[in-house]
Amino acid sequence: MTPKDSESGPPLITSRSPSYERAREERRHPSPTSDPELVALIARLAEAEENAREAFATAAGQVRDTALAERLATTERTHADRVAAIGAVLSSLGAAPPRAGEARAVLDHGAADVRRAGSDAEVEQVLARVSSELAGEHDRARRDPRLGAAVSEALAR
Questions:
Q1: Is residue 12 one of the residues assigned to a domain?
Q2: Do the domain assignments include residue 107?
């Protein structure tokens, strides 16, 4: 022990300490506990939906055909709604949904591939891959036995 350690003694903790305040609040209103693997599975879906949303948003701003751009913007909003719905499921399980900009690249294709596409047709091909990969993520999640009927229904919206 150094002289400073012996002089300082134990840390000063009062009943007003933020740590104690959080602990008291948690005791009065415990957070729901959930299966961490189920939370990870649902969080992965949220990230996949966010990847798809980003890809469609990028595509809507990049394509030359205005009718196609409108359809892509509508699809982007659908993915944004799904991200919010999945986030609500995560919150109900006591987990925090990934925030915008924090989503990992779960899908193999995404916004970067859209930006590299040279024509509207190439953009549509990339988005078809994105949609296919996203459908695969949803299929994997639906096959997981931990996913209850209520959660599965909420994710299907």
A1: no
A2: yes
